[in-house]
Design goal:
By secondary structure, this protein is α/β, with parallel strands linked by helices. The chain contains 16 helices and eleven strands. 45% of the residues lie in helices and 15% in strands. α4 runs parallel beside α5 and α13 crosses α15. The longest helix has 18 residues.
Length: 348
């Protein structure tokens, strides 16, 4: 049954206030399909429940206070009761208590879905306790299915991450912006030791790095410090960086392997040429040399960079094919449609 065409009331629990989040992309997709969507910002609800002002909020970041989190969960439950959604979607590792989910089910009978977009390392105790309560767990990686089932999930569907053309379309650049963002190779993402090791080998290359923590972690690494732009690149600026770069490097975190990360889809959505570390779960859909380029090791990476910089026509052709591939089958509209269709008659 095509449930994506049936108008539903859906509550998204996560951080929907941020315009560059998974939640915002799913909300845009649901809006485009004609569903009525209410976002509940759980981190904001927790901050509002904290006592003792800024000191209390900072303390709660590192040592969450059960009473404050429970108060935020109560707010989520009463919001759900007032809105009466057909479906409640919990995004990622939101601090939702199993008792709160059970109360939503008891009070209004909503269909409960978990969107899991991350390594299982980040699946907290509270999220594990909730797994048996979900009618569906939509996980970003096929490799996580068995682990989630072992921990108690009853119904699991592989739903990869995707592209959001409203957030990351190719960006027109002014002359000054072209100069500001132009690079032979760009990398957008936070510091990881594995990423530092790879990027440190680009000495003498026109490299730009955008993301948090590089300055704090790499003060003595001159290659990194000469390339780091001092901040992340989000939303429209992300698209400008991708548009202006000849090659957009994607170093997938080893804890995400063999799955695709968000950058895997965001780079081609923004019209960029992607050179990615290996991603077995997507290599049949995004073919090497057709929609993307993959590298195996540091030697292979440098050879690919040299080849692509010498062949800009290849870069343009592959970047265009990659964007067409994402827009054709790998947007968040396609992802949420697959989730809704899998629910079938349970939402009628």
């Amino acid at each position: 049954m095509d449930m994506s065409s049936k108008s539903l009331r859906i509550m998204l629990v996560g951080t929907p206030a941020n315009t560059c989040t998974l939640e915002s992309s799913y909300k845009s997709a649901l809006d485009s399909l004609g569903h009525e969507v209410l976002g509940f910002d759980m981190p904001l609800a927790i901050r509002r429940s904290c006592r003792f002002g800024r000191v209390g909020r900072e303390f709660n970041r590192y040592l969450p206070v059960d009473a404050w989190t429970k108060k935020a969960n109560r707010s989520m439950v009463t919001t759900a009761i007032d809105f009466a959604p057909d479906m409640v979607i919990i995004c990622g590792s939101s601090l939702v208590y199993p008792g709160a989910l059970a109360q939503v089910r008891a009070s209004i009978g909503s269909y409960l879905v978990l969107l899991w977009p991350d390594t299982l390392l980040n699946l907290g105790i509270h999220s594990i306790a909730c797994l048996p309560l979900y009618d569906l767990v939509a996980t970003y990686s096929k490799s996580t299915v068995e682990g989630l089932r072992t921990m108690g999930a009853r119904s699991i569907k592989w739903v990869p991450l995707g592209g959001d053309p409203l957030l990351h379309s190719p960006a027109p650049l002014t002359g000054s912006e072209s100069a500001k963002y132009r690079a032979d190779v760009s990398f957008i993402g936070g510091w990881r030791p594995e990423r530092e090791k790879v990027l440190s080998e680009f000495k003498g290359l026109d490299l730009k790095i955008w993301g948090p923590d590089w300055g704090r972690r790499c003060r003595r690494n001159t290659v990194i410090m000469d390339s780091w732009q001092g901040r992340p690149a989000l939303g429209q600026e992300f698209s400008k960086v991708v548009t202006a770069s000849k090659i957009n490097l994607n170093i997938i975190d080893p804890t995400n392997f063999p799955a695709a990360n968000m950058r895997f889809f965001e780079i081609p959505t923004a019209g960029g040429l992607q050179l990615s570390s290996q991603c077995p779960e997507m290599e049949n859909d995004f073919r090497h040399g057709v929609h993307i380029f993959y590298y195996r090791d540091s030697k292979d990476l440098r050879e690919h960079v040299n080849y692509l910089l010498a062949n800009p026509d290849v870069c343009g052709k592959v970047a265009e094919a990659g964007r067409t591939r994402v827009l054709g089958a790998h947007t968040y509209t396609a992802r949420i449609s697959a989730i809704l269709d899998s629910c079938g008659s349970q939402l009628t």
